[in-house]
Amino acid sequence: MPMPSKGDRDSIHSRVPVEVKEAIRKRCAARGMKESQYVADLLAMAVGRHDLVRELNQEVLQQTA
Fold first, then answer.
1. Confidence band (pLDDT; 50, 70, 90) for 61?
2. What's the CA gap between 42 and 55, in Å, rounded?
3. Do residues 39 and 52 lie in contact, with contact meaning Cβ atoms separated by under 8 Å?
4. Residue 38 and residue 29: Cα distance in Å, rounded?
5. Exposed, middle or buried by CB within 10 Å (0-12, 13-18, 19+), for 18?
6. Of the residues 22, 32, 45, 57, which has the fewest C-beta atoms closer than 10 A?
């Protein structure tokens, strides 16, 4: 069955330190999230677009600060 649309989206490619990538991988695994959605939610929060956050909540944001 196809996944529901997440709306109009674009991609960003970035190189991050290996340690950052590993931390993101572990956090996503613990939450059962895809890395791309986790990063998309963090970026939406960073620019003040909390309406676009799909899976993370304020509690998670405080843990990642």
1. low
2. 10
3. no
4. 11
5. exposed
6. 32
